[in-house]
């Protein structure tokens, strides 16, 4: 049997993967979730995800020492010992008054004394509450809601990047969804005959019409 000396696979390009699409919870779904009956600890988890933009593993490791009510900020611990300071939403500040000032906010059960709950435990708890409330999505959809709502309200994407703690602006673009209404409005404003339209030009310091 003869074998080729060259490798034909090197001529193949890298596979193309579709862009990830953010799936934030709908506004009415979040409102319905927060208005539903649930354990207080579950509600605080949901607030950390939707109003703090935290991931489930960050929620699991949250401590009372991570809150500074006087400065209205909280801290999120990242890789390599990094610590990010973020603004504290009023509803989170209110919730903090009901939580331990020191130690884990979400301690594990008696089988793991002194430890925090697992990230999967947080995901399961929030997910169950969402299903009971009829709120579509996953626990991470609450973080998506945080990012998309900030952008939809007119916040600068670079500000949203810092709040989501993304190193790359391209990553933030995945978490922020341009509303369909804004996309339609952008296309509707296109004018193929704008070259023949009157336009404003300065005349002795005063804008005037031309064309």
Automatic annotation (TrEMBL):
Superkingdom of origin organism: Bacteria
SUPFAM superfamilies: DNA breaking-rejoining enzymes
Keywords assigned by UniProt, alphabetized: DNA recombination, DNA-binding
Molecular function per GO: DNA binding
InterPro entries assigned: DNA_brk_join_enz, Integrase-like_cat_sf, Integrase_catalytic, Tyrosine_recombinase_XerCD
One GO term (biological process): DNA integration
Domain Tyr recombinase, residue spans: 20-188
Family according to the record: Belongs to the 'phage' integrase family.
Stated name of the protein: Site-specific recombinase, phage integrase
């Amino acid at each position: 049997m003869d074998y080729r000396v060259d490798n034909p696979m090197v001529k193949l390009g890298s596979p193309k993967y579709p862009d990830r699409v953010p799936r934030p919870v709908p506004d009415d779904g979040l409102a319905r979730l927060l208005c539903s009956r649930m354990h207080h600890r579950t509600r605080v988890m949901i607030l950390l995800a939707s109003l703090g933009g935290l991931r489930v593993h960050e929620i699991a490791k949250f401590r009372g020492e991570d809150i500074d009510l006087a400065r209205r900020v909280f801290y999120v611990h990242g890789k390599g010992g990094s610590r990010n300071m973020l603004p504290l939403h009023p509803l989170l500040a209110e919730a903090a008054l009901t939580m331990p000032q020191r130690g884990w906010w979400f301690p594990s059960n008696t089988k793991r004394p002194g430890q925090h709950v697992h990230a999967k435990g947080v995901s399961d708890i929030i997910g169950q509450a969402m299903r009971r409330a009829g709120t579509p999505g996953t626990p991470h959809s609450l973080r998506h809601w945080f990012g998309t709502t900030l952008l939809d309200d007119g916040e600068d994407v670079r500000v949203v990047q810092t709040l989501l703690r993304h190193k790359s602006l391209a990553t933030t673009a995945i978490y922020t969804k341009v509303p369909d209404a804004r996309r339609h409005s952008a296309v509707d404003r296109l004018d193929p005959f704008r070259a023949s339209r009157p336009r404003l030009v300065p005349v002795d310091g005063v804008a005037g019409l031309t064309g």
